[in-house]
Design goal:
The protein is an all-alpha fold. The chain has 2 domains: 39 residues, no CATH class; 174 residues, Orthogonal Bundle (Hypothetical protein af1432). The two termini are 37 Å apart. The structure holds fe (ii) ion (2 copies).
């Protein structure tokens, strides 16, 4: 680990724990712990649904591999709805719920509120890398084309300021990726194309309502969006994962993230 870069980019929580230690030994311990935590954070965990790949044995479950239901996760209804996924897999989903709440408070069109609600659904549950593309694909069969487009393009737009609407490069990204990080050429290309597109502002609005820290004490319930989902998300009657759509396997992978095959 590069100590200088670690010390420069240390999170506020780590700094506070080191500053709060009263003796030199305690400070050294706090520093060591912070370094270990920071190292952990630098791996974007690919575990689907946030459960570890090497679980402790579950009493009474003698299967050598999980195939079908994983007892560590709530059982999903047979025909799961989008709201079921929020309740049983995405929860607490604070980031996306708070983004959608903000979009609603800002009086944005329902399509944009829905886009904010769905813009990061793959991140904690399926895959983080290139998440804008994954999220867009997951929902494309069920939403207006503009919603999926906006979500896909937020992958690139997050990295590019737009002063005309007050969107600045996220300060958090300087901490996450370093001050000298340059978005990859494919993202530059995506941004160049998106900014001339008729739906550019829909995607830009996602980034404007994309909160990089949670508003403390604000609890948002997915049921606050039941009506908006009902009007703007075509829920398949067979349930997400079982409607034979080209993306059904993505939803099934969230239902059964540890299937052996
Ligand atoms: Fe995102
Ligand atoms: Fe986000």
């Amino acid at each position: 680990m590069d100590r200088r870069s670690f010390l420069t980019n240390m999170s506020a929580a780590s700094l506070a724990s080191i500053a709060g230690a009263t003796t030199l030994t305690a400070k050294a311990d706090a520093l060591e712990e912070a370094m270990s935590d920071e190292l952990d954070k630098r791996i974007a965990m690919p575990w689907a649904c946030g459960i570890e790949g090497t679980p402790d044995p579950i009493p009474g479950d003698t299967r050598p591999w999980y195939q079908h239901d994983d007892p560590r996760l709530p059982k999903m209804p047979e025909a799961p709805t989008l709201i079921d996924f929020f309740k049983y897999r995405f929860a607490p989903a604070s980031h996306i719920l708070q983004s959608a709440r903000l979009a609603k408070i800002n009086g944005l069109d329902e399509k944009i509120v829905l886009a904010c609600l769905l813009h990061d659904i793959s991140v904690g549950n399926l895959i983080r890398t290139d998440h804008g593309y994954w999220c867009a694909q997951m929902i494309a069969p069920y939403v207006d084309e503009e919603v999926a487009w906006a979500i896909e393009k937020h992958q690139a737009l997050r990295f590019f300021p737009d002063e005309s609407v007050g969107y600045e490069y996220p300060e958090a990204y300087i901490r996450f990726f370093g001050a000298d990080y340059q978005p990859e050429p494919y993202l530059v290309k995506e941004w160049e194309e998106a900014k001339n597109h008729k739906w550019y502002m829909s995607s830009r609005l996602i980034t404007l309502n994309d909160l990089y820290s949670f508003e403390e004490g604000v609890q948002v319930d997915v049921e606050d969006f039941t009506d908006i989902i009902g009007r703007n998300f075509k829920q398949p009657k067979e349930g997400l994962g079982f409607d034979g759509s080209p993306v059904a396997h993505m939803w099934r992978s969230i239902i059964w993230p540890n299937n052996f095959l």
